[in-house]
Amino acid sequence: MAVLIVRRLGSLAVTLLLLSVIVFGVTQVLPGNVAQMILGPYSTPETQQALEKNLKLDEPAWQQYRDWLTHFVRGDWGTSLRLGQQIRPILLLRLQNSAYLALSSLIGVVFFGIGLGILAGIRQNRPTDHLIALFAFLGISIPAFVSGSLLIILFGGGVWNLLPGSGYRSPTEDVRGWLTRLVLPTITLMLLLLAYVIRMTRSSIIEVLTTNYIRAARLKGASERDVILRHALRNALLPTVTVIAINIGFMLGSVVIIEQIFAYPGIGSLILFAVSNRDLPLLQASVMVIGIVTGLANLVADVLYMYLNPRIRYR
Amino acid sequence: MSTSPSGVHDATGVSAPPPATEGAAVAPGMQGSRAGRWRRFWEDVRRTPSASVGLVIVAGFFILSLIGPYIAPHSPTDFDIANKFGRPTLAHPFGTDPFGRDVFSRVIYGARLSFLLAAAATLFSLLIGTPLGLIAGYYQGWLDEVLMRVTDALLALPSIILALLIVTTLGSSAFNVILVVGIVYAPRIARVIRSGTLALRNEEFVQAARARGESGAYILFSEVLPNTIAPLIVEASIRMGFAILLATSLSFLGLGVSPPAPDWGLMVNEARPHIFRAPWLTIFPSLVIALTIVGFNLLGDGLRDILDPRRVWTERRSEGV
What we know:
The complex is a heterodimer of chains A (315) and B (321).
Chain A: H1 2-28, H2 34-39, H3 45-54, H4 61-74, H5 87-122, H6 127-141, H7 144-155, H8 175-209, H9 212-219, H10 224-261, H11 267-276, H12 280-308, H13 310-313
Chain B: H1 8-12, H2 34-47, H3 49-71, H4 103-139, H5 141-155, H6 159-170, H7 174-200, H8 204-211, H9 216-224, H10 229-252, H11 264-271, H12 280-307
């Protein structure tokens, strides 16, 4: 197993290295004068030259790449062109905000996903099961910007004025404001993920319920509740855990949309800011961070899967 | 590692593809005469509820994109300032927007735009992804290794992030939406084709072609490709749904089609400041987008059940919007 993990780490390193080439390459294929593109049509040649010097655009590409990569690995992520500040503190703060959002969604997904999955599993092929399947399918199919906008209309003031539809409060200053502003984006993100967990839990429960040890538990007189919660659920949880880990990368993609809808200051809205303002250093650093987090989450998913699967664990 | 959970792995694509769970290349029920095959296929579609419902929705969308401009009651772009922010009425079933444009007509015109964008993008990704997948799967070796590592790196990013990265390079326009969506989905197509090719490369008919001394291109396009058609159809129909999803999402972010085009994503974006004052501006385009994507997903799921039964419920959302 240790060998597998090391090999997996190696392939992650290769992937991230290639990704860094791609992310860096994007700046190289920008058509025309990069400095002018960044500064806009009203820039003077002097400011353009200054920026070129500042970005070291006059050096050969491989040298720029090497410098950029070594700085990035050392934790020096450069200065944002638009914000004029060090990128790392901003990026990490935004990542933290997005992590709140991701974490609250994960909690909700685990809770509702496993609950609905069990329910669908024990009511297999009955109306409840079909209803849950429909709900999951709609959640997975409807784009985040559609469900998010509809949620704002429904609960953010259009129909019922229950929750603030947008914005952000720091949890250290205003816990209530922070929590209430987290609810709608969390639900939007949850809707996208629920289907995975529901389907996974459902099929594991159905599979586990046909095994002999569940029959044994029933025969020894355990209540149906005990059979499900103590015997079946424990085994059904294993695949569900990996599915959740795999989807962390995906969550980081959807936050771009969700943070835009709800004006939530996370890493997604930061990337969007970088794209709209052609803030290349900021864009490169944020995309690399997303790549790293996604890669690590997948690694964790793999390791968990190996660990939870004895056939692989003891190889 | 050859048994990852339900193949969800391929999508995130960081690990090597698990050979044991890779898609079946030749679907059962695809043997026999051409007419007989189609008849059986049609019966399968009718018997699979998700496929038939999906087909109805997709057909409706397709017809709307063909005849939309002839049945739309108003122009999608003409201003009528006296009539701005009109509530839904009989004359304007979906209401009017801040410029007095008829939302119903804009939604109808939008079907053609969405269809053209998505179809062109899917075609583009097939054009890039298919040859790469064929070559990687057939020739193996270092070429395969390099291609797969590059797709790994591209798939390491959620697709919307990759799309944003490319938009930064190309700039935003309707044409670039096609390029961006096509490039984002090409690696996924390449993977599907590659696994199909892998399963076929040692089949007898391929060996026979090799023994006859046929060229590599002939073997790939005349022997291998026709036999990967089943997974390819499934993939293309799922990709169409995703292409609409990604294209409308880009327009929603203001990085896709530019105003005043009647793009659905752009309409939801433009409706944001008026979300409480004129919720119909958000609601109707949203529902149409949702319905269309649901239709393509249903059709894709149904087709997969019919054509590619070994690939049970694989990735969907790692697509990432």
